[in-house]
Each structure stands twice: as structure tokens, then as C-alpha cells.
């Protein structure tokens, strides 16, 4: 009964155009975004989580939760802010924060920007964080958060002489993130200045359907039309369709988490509610990411696509030759003894990855090692083959790469 009265009281406040509850922290403004800068390629760009926002409100609220922040610039992505998230002292998630344009299919929108970011940063999952418009005044309240269990595109329609039939698609959240959504609110405390008084002010809807499309809807007629076509949907936004399309093509985990800042049947909203809704959405994301070990075994981009892109194996008759025998023995021995060694070093401000591979060479020289070294920033690689120890193979490859970087003017 107390909960219901609190929610009803809140409805009256919103209809009376009162502002949102006060946050426990002041949201930063653009002039506060002071972070050290690093040249692209001078640090490890591979991340765990990519946070994608579409306006400064969402960006600033997500920035609030980043630790050890620095920024970098890439001509394809613009400025990207890097940092860490997670409540455990020793384990932190490597996170990148990126802002794109609103509208999934617009130039510079999520559908265009996300593929570039995923291919360059190789995240384990993409979180689309921001704001949305509610479709039902009786089911949701301003400031509530929608962790979309299902995303539906509504713009695609088949128009005939007699009727209009929706022909979009409706998909659940991706496999791994769908297991997190039901627990999004577990242990979550809304960042309110007076949580004891306002404890029933904000809810997380973790079983809802969210509509996504190119329209910014602020019309009773259009809102009623969407409610009739999609009775289970609780909110509408403009970016999730692009996030899904890009993530599906890249075989990357994705999730859409949006805070409600207005109702779709009117345009009566304020920047205060926009900031509040984004702050609530960002805090839910921070809660989901609070236990980094959850994501420990999630594959990164390329780890997924490289495996799944392989077609079905075609069985061919096997002719037993010395080469085949050597290959089979090599595979068996590599499985038993360990296939390679890897590592990284810093060289004159650059990150260099190295590895060595053990292989069978001949009956006279049973095992030999090949080395490889790769400059992370430029992608330049050098190899060395046929050494008797792993260390020799790696050192030779590193020396070749250092000379190459010097000859191409990448180091002094």
C-alpha cells in the first residue's frame, strides 16, 4: 500500500510539472571533462565494455562512473574516453566511452559508428545508454529505467490499399546479456540525495519491450497507434535498431538501457528530467558492471567472428604422406605440450605484442620455434623462423620489428 501511494504521489508531481528528485552527486558539465590525453596506438586499445551514448547528457552521466580516465583521438571515431569500472579493488573492467549521433541509421549514428568502434576496440559487449520516451503513463514513471529484454523495430511497414501491416523485426537481447537483464536491479541503489524519502521514486523495468525507429514521437495520435500495434511495448527510442543491426552483423553482445525522460504523447519535458533519466540509466549500467568476474570468460570480437565465420568442414579423403604425418604429430604434441608463448613489451612509447610457436620440423630436428612480433598501433608485423629456443625466436622477431619501425620513421 505504501509503495502504491508513493508511486501515485509521484504521478501527481509529474503531472504538476515538478522537477525530478535531487541526485546524490552533481552531474559534470562539459568544462569539467578534464582528462589526460594519449596518442592513439601508445596504449592497449582492447577493452571489455563499450559504452555508447548519443547526447552529452548520457555521456556526462556515464563519465561519472569511470576511473583512471584518459582520452584519445582516432580519425574514424573522434574522441574516445577510456577508463575502468567495477567495485572490486583488484579486478576492473576496461571500458571505452563513445558518443555518436542520435538515430541508429543516420550518418554518424550507432549503425555507422558502432562497427568501426567494435572492430578497433574489440569489446566483449556493447551497452547503449541513454534516454527514451514512455508509452504508458500508468505503467511507467519519469526517471524509470528500461533494460530492454526485447527490442522491436516499428518503422518497416507493408502498405496495401486496405491496410498497413507492420513488417519490422522483434528480437530478444543477445545471449549473454539477456542473462544479466533480470538481475539489473539486484543490489541497485538509485543515486538519490534522499534515498530514504525517495526510495520508491525509481524502478527498473527488466522484462519490457522497447520500440526503436527513426521518429522522435511526441504525438497522442502516433503514440496511440504504436500502443495498438505493440501492446507489450513500454517505451520508444531511436538508437537501438542501429545497435542491434551492427552487433548482430559483428556477432557481438549488446544491450539497450534507457531512462524515461518524457512521455511519447506530448513534448512537455525538461532538461532536468533528461539529465535525471540518463543518470539513472548510467547507474544501472554501473551496477551491472560492478562484478567484473561475470565477464571474465566472455569472448571478444574476432574471437567470436573468427570461429563462427568458418563454414562447415568438407571431408576429403586423407592420403597419408610424410607431410600429413608430421602435421598430425605436430598437432598432437602441441596439444600436449602447449602451442605457443605470448607477451607484450613497451618500446619507445609503443606497445609490441610477441609470440612464439613450437612446430615439428623433421626427424633430425624434431622441434623448432618460430617467433612473431607486432606493433599494436600500426599493425606492422615481423616473423622469424627456425630457432632452437622460444626466447631466440622472440628476440630475433623483436629486433627485426624495431629496425622496421625505425626505417619507417615510427620511432626515433
Automatic annotation (TrEMBL):
Residues 1-20 have a biased composition (Basic and acidic residues). GO terms for cellular component: cytosol. GO terms for biological process: L-methionine salvage from S-adenosylmethionine; nucleoside metabolic process. InterPro entries: Nucleoside_phosphorylase_sf. It comes from the Eukaryota. One of its GO terms (molecular function) is methylthioadenosine nucleosidase activity. Residues 1-22 are annotated as: Disordered. PANTHER family: 5'-METHYLTHIOADENOSINE/S-ADENOSYLHOMOCYSTEINE NUCLEOSIDASE, 5'-METHYLTHIOADENOSINE_S-ADENOSYLHOMOCYSTEINE NUCLEOSIDASE. This is Uncharacterized protein. It comes from Acropora cervicornis (Staghorn coral).
Amino acid at each position: 500500500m505504501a509503495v502504491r501511494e508513493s508511486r501515485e504521489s509521484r504521478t501527481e508531481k509529474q503531472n504538476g510539472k515538478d522537477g525530478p528528485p535531487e541526485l546524490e552527486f552533481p552531474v559534470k558539465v562539459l568544462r569539467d571533462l578534464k582528462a589526460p590525453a594519449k596518442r592513439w596506438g601508445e596504449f592497449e586499445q582492447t577493452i571489455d565494455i563499450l559504452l555508447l551514448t548519443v547526447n552529452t547528457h548520457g555521456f556526462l552521466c556515464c563519465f561519472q562512473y569511470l576511473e583512471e580516465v584518459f582520452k584519445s583521438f582516432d580519425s574514424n571515431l573522434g574522441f574516445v574516453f577510456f577508463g575502468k569500472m567495477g567495485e572490486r579493488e583488484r579486478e576492473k573492467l576496461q571500458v571505452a566511452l563513445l558518443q555518436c549521433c542520435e538515430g541508429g541509421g543516420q550518418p554518424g549514428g550507432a549503425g555507422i559508428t558502432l562497427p568501426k568502434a567494435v572492430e578497433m576496440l574489440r569489446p566483449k559487449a556493447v551497452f547503449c545508454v541513454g534516454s527514451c520516451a514512455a508509452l504508458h503513463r500508468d505503467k511507467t514513471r519519469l526517471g524509470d529505467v528500461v533494460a530492454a529484454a526485447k527490442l522491436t523495430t516499428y518503422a518497416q511497414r507493408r502498405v496495401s490499399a486496405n491496410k498497413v501491416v507492420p513488417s519490422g523485426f522483434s528480437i530478444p537481447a543477445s545471449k549473454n546479456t539477456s542473462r544479466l537483464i533480470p538481475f539489473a536491479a539486484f543490489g541497485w541503489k538509485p543515486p538519490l540525495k534522499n534515498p530514504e524519502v525517495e526510495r520508491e521514486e525509481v524502478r527498473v523495468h527488466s522484462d519490457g519491450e522497447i520500440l526503436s525507429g527513426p521518429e522522435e514521437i511526441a504525438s497522442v495520435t502516433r503514440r496511440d497507434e504504436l500502443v495498438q500495434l505493440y501492446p507489450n511495448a513500454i517505451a520508444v527510442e531511436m538508437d537501438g535498431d542501429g545497435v542491434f543491426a551492427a552487433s548482430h552483423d559483428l556477432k557481438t553482445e549488446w544491450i539497450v538501457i534507457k531512462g524515461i525522460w518524457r512521455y511519447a504523447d506530448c513534448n512537455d519535458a525538461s532538461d532536468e528530467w533528461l539529465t535525471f533519466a540518463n543518470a539513472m540509466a548510467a547507474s544501472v549500467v554501473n551496477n551491472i558492471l560492478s562484478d567484473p568476474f561475470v565477464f571474465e570468460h566472455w569472448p571478444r570480437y574476432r574471437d567470436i567472428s573468427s570461429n563462427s565465420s568458418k563454414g562447415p568442414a568438407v571431408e576429403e579423403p586423407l592420403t597419408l604422406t610424410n607431410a600429413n604425418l608430421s602435421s598430425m604429430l605436430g598437432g598432437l604434441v602441441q596439444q600436449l605440450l602447449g602451442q605457443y608463448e605470448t607477451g607484450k613489451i613497451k618500446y619507445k612509447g609503443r606497445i609490441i605484442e610477441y609470440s612464439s610457436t613450437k612446430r615439428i620440423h623433421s626427424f633430425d630436428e624434431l622441434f623448432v620455434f618460430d617467433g612473431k612480433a607486432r606493433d599494436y598501433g600500426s599493425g606492422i608485423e615481423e616473423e622469424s623462423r627456425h630457432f632452437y629456443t622460444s626466447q631466440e625466436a622472440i628476440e630475433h622477431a623483436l629486433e627485426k620489428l624495431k629496425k622496421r619501425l625505425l626505417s619507417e620513421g615510427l620511432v626515433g
